[in-house]
Design goal:
Length: 472
């Protein structure tokens, strides 16, 4: 049985969670379930450690982040195989996730070294010309963090790394289906020299983790997951600062002048079907100008047939494997079947065997269908034609989500119009919305969340600005 890290100590529990391969059903591990009392102890010790952690000098925090990044690199193969097995993530993509986790801790150490305050020109006001002032950011306190299954290493890193850099104790609950990557990362952080009581990473049932949300001692709640759960947690968390990275139904607009046509079609196919679409910025909607619609659909179908390999996650070259669990299978099936019952046409795919779907392309999806209003989080993409650019922008904005969008055009006027019009956290030109690097500001609007991740931006949310005023 694998233990939980509770305030720097590895603890067992009375109950266990079976972690099974989504691909084969094989039992991978039994992981202890933390009790409510253990979660309370983790929060109490984290709260008590605030002064010790805040006193760590910047160079030391940066050094710890750098050491964690190096250790991830040394253990990269084992980490990739662990997260591939527990999440059914194709091994090539798992290795990419490990590389991104290295970047995440590297960026965290660099950001805290370059953090600056501000000098305030007090003498801009007549009655303050005898004053001098500056600002500096200080740790906000304990961070509560909750992460999902789909990036079991790097999304955990995006909670832990900014906490280390900012000087904040942290308690973190990974997804019950993919806890082992997070526990391995916790061990690396302890060995890098982080104060033990300031770190807890535990597998726990929802009923044991209420204090992470409602207890006033944690100052920040950082949650990545579904929009339904995220907004419910926000309603319960009281005065905490809240960062929500939630769902999306990412859209792409393809104009007739789209450059590098073949590369674009390949990028859209990968953006839609990598990891079976279980990515919150997976391409779900593609709006194609009618002049090039037929060509696009034909080319996309061909690319999907030729390049989107379905199979076991440990095999090189596989693009998509099994969905994470039966609930995910049921959701995808219901959304696709409901759309087809309302008149949607399936252009490609749809065969299912167990938890594995063939990649699906659909069109003429009714705008009032659940599929048109919900995050699919599965291996399907909707392709629709449009006549006017304004119409395509309006279609993108009809969604209740607003995470990222992609645009393929060479026209600067189209790019600026889209940037000013689209209700999203990021517009990517010549790229799919599935693109992310780990130091960029990442987050959305509307039902896609609050705040931004990316190391500088998360560190900002984990800290408080303080003003010092002195006589001249």
């Amino acid at each position: 049985m694998e233990s939980n890290l509770i305030a720097g100590e590895w603890r067992d529990g009375e109950q266990v969670t079976e972690v099974r391969s989504p691909w084969s059903g094989e039992l991978l591990a039994e992981v202890a379930e933390a009790s409510a009392a253990q979660v309370e102890h983790a929060i109490a010790r984290a709260h008590a450690s605030r002064a010790e952690v805040a006193a760590l000098p910047v160079w030391r925090r940066a050094e710890i982040c750098r050491s964690v990044a190096a250790a991830i690199g040394e253990q990269s193969d084992a980490l990739a195989r662990t997260l591939s097995a527990e999440a059914a993530k194709p091994i090539d993509q798992a290795r990419g996730e490990v590389a991104r986790a290295i970047d995440t801790f590297t960026f965290a150490g660099e950001e805290i070294r370059s953090a600056r305050g501000e000098v305030i020109p007090m003498d801009a006001a007549r009655r303050a010309d005898d004053k001098w002032a500056m600002t500096r950011r200080f740790p906000a306190g304990v961070v509560s963090a909750i992460t999902p299954f789909n990036f079991p290493l790097n999304l955990v890193a995006h909670k832990l790394a900014p906490a280390l850099a900012a000087g904040c104790p942290i308690v973190l609950k990974p997804a019950a289906s993919t806890p082992r990557s997070a526990l391995a990362l916790a061990r690396i952080i302890l060995e890098a020299g982080w104060p033990p009581e300031a770190l807890s990473v535990f597998n726990a049932p929802h009923e044991a983790t209420g204090a992470m949300v409602t207890d006033p001692r944690p100052a920040v709640l950082s949650f990545t997951g579904s929009d339904t759960v995220g907004w419910e947690l926000k309603a319960r968390c009281g005065k905490k600062r809240v960062i929500l990275e939630l769902g999306g139904d990412a859209a792409v607009i393809v104009e007739p002048d789209a450059p590098d046509w073949d590369a674009m079609v390949g990028r859209i196919a990968t953006g839609a079907f990598a990891y079976a679409g279980q990515v919150c910025i997976s391409v779900q909607r593609v709006y194609v100008h009618r002049d090039v619609y037929e060509r696009f659909v034909a080319d996309l179908e061909q690319v999907v047939r030729d390049r989107v390999k379905v199979g076991a996650p440990d095999q090189p070259g596989v693009v998509m494997s099994a969905l994470i669990d039966e609930r995910a299978v049921k959701k995808v099936s219901e959304l696709i079947d409901g759309a087809e019952a309302g008149g949607a046409r399936r252009l490609l795919g749809g065969h299912r065997e167990g938890r594995i779907f063939d990649p699906m392309i659909l069109t003429e999806v009714p705008p009032d269908s659940r599929l048109a209003r919900t995050e699919l989080f599965g291996p399907g993409v909707i392709v629709e034609a449009y006549d006017a650019f304004d119409e395509a922008l309006a279609q993108v904005n009809r969604s209740r989500f607003g995470l990222q969008a992609g645009l393929f055009t060479q026209r600067l006027d189209r790019i600026t119009q889209a940037f000013e019009t689209l209700e999203v956290g990021a517009l990517l030109v010549g790229e799919v919305p599935t693109f992310r690097v780990d130091h960029m500001p990442y987050g959305g609007v509307k039902d896609s969340g609050l705040g931004r991740e990316g190391l500088r931006y998360a560190i900002h949310d984990y800290t408080e600005e303080r003003l010092l005023v002195l006589p001249r």
